[in-house]
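Replying to the earlier thread about multi-chain prediction with a worked example.

Input:
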Amino acid sequence: MITTQLEDKILSICFDRSDKMNAITDAMYLAAEKALLDGSDNKEVRVVLFSGAGDHFTSGNDLAEFMSKPPSGNNPPVLKFLLALLRFPKPVVVAINGLAVGIGTTMLAHCDYVVAAQDARFKLPFVDLGACPEGGSSLLFPQLMGHSQAAELLMVADIFSSDKAAQVGLVNKVVAADEVQAHAQKIAKKLSLKAPGAMIKAKALLKQSYAADLEVRMVEEIISFGEMLKSAEAKEALSAFMEKRAPDFSSF
Ligand code: COA
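Result:
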């Protein structure tokens, strides 16, 4: 589930499903979207702070739901969440501990300040799942880090460290694991005390040159993603995960 808390003008949104490493379901996307939309309209909210419950940020989209109900159409719950995040007008801070997989990494490129534990790990396994990049990463990552780094993260798709995430521009600050929450709170507090109108204008201007193109790309990505999840390649990848074995793509 998603838990939210509003305190001192900071709206905390937590992926809270620790028995599944905070894997995100459609219901969780819709709850997070609602929290963002409500927070957008609420003057008492000046900053959003994302985190994950327990030892991890999130293991990404729930793979059981990918099998039973892959994203369909041009506005599935995952896209509703991503668009609400992209359009959220106020600062967004993220605290990362443990694993940040899939959308747990791509969503960072839409946020404004990311704090990660020194031992946090990141992974973008879309191609390994028989699917394609999502969350605007096919457009944003090459812009942010250049093609070669984006290809390494999205095509080689090995797990990578916080230092690497900082080097490619996905993470602002790497700190000791037990300092992540405190550091993220400190930044959120600092942002919450600044002039709110000026903050909203600054963020809008920072995103102005690419936000419209990004929305178009995010829709294209999710339509392809949903269609690809119905393919034999994806069925093999998802079955392999459920059966706790390595996938075999040799016959495709
Ligand atoms: N969706 C659904 N369940 C998930 C999940 C996900 N994305 N990630 C982890 N889980 C579940 C596992 O099925 C397992 O449940 P179980 O105890 O009922 O069997 C539990 O969380 C722990 O995961 P496990 O795989 O045993 O832990 P691990 O430390 O060996 O591996 C990961 C951790 C994250 C590397 C591995 O779970 C993984 O690859 N998950 C899928 C990540 C993914 O592809 N996400 C989608 C991106 S688009």
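Residues 20-21, 23, 59-64, 99, 101-102, 125-126, 129 surround coenzyme A (CB under 6 Å).

Feel free to reuse this layout for your own posts.
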